[in-house]
Amino acid sequence: MTPGPIDNDTAADWFGDEMDKMKISKRIREGLESTSSAEVRAAAFLLQQVGFVYVYPIDDLDADLKAAIDALRGVRARSEAELGPLVDPDWRADITAQIGVLEARLEDPSAPGSTSLFEAIAKLQSNPDKRKRALLR
What we know:
7 helices; mainly alpha
């Protein structure tokens, strides 16, 4: 079987060089520490896209995934504290799905087929029972 685009030594070396040049882990952590909810979500989204073994700096992966989960929970809690019942349920479901994707990645960071944010949101939107549970988290 032919290796995928990220699960081979040549690709891992290339990704390692590029991630070092971009200082990706540092940039993502800065975004996660932002006071802007939009920047926090953007940084967490970027981590979702590149936060795989063989792609992301392995020494930072678990800590950055945990930081992203915590930062998103903080965004959700602050929004709910400020807006209470006015928080858009779709927004809450979206951020809950984003947290779920990162939690799954933390459990298995090598899984290239890990659910993307868009797939997680689609599943929540297509299944009212799951959506209700996500809204109650």
